What does this fold into?
Amino acid sequence: MKIYEKIRLLRKTVLNMNLKDFHKKLCEIFGDKALTYHSLCRLEKGHREDVRISSLYQICTGLGISLKELKEGTDAEESKIVTILHTKDRFKNRFVYNEKANAEILNSRNMRFLATAVALEPGGATDNEEDPLDANKFEKLVIMLQGKIVACIGNEKHLLKKGDTLSFASNILHHFENPSATSRARLILVQNPKSY
It folds into this structure.
């Protein structure tokens, strides 16, 4: 059972409350520091991949249980040393550059880095990107998985093939192109630290 499923189950069966009433209860307890209704809705539907401990504290207080009791029997209890983001749960982390380029965040948002899988259809390209102007702060690593791409970094162009890697300061304007007319390209982008 997912932790959000358990929260919903306890709210409905133990408290016998609808979501609006539960939110009102949290507002009475925590005032203007209470979770917003929108955040609570997203959390209960499982649309928030990582839940802050402060949010769980509020929910546990509202439910009248401890964090340990909330986590018992849920997937969150499975490991204390790793975070697993299953493929079926990554649908919330997909975004589209355009009809020929899309990406999917691969790691948990509580990590210090960002890893994305990028797919480029034949002739596809990502949008131009550049991170904040601290040259020593943000770095990206490209790991080619399939096909070929042209990595356009500043005014340089580099052809990468399956198995190749490339790293650069991500404050430099950059994008990636698939020069093939027939083959798909796939790559992993790792950014450290993440900029969002």
Notes: The mean pLDDT is 86.
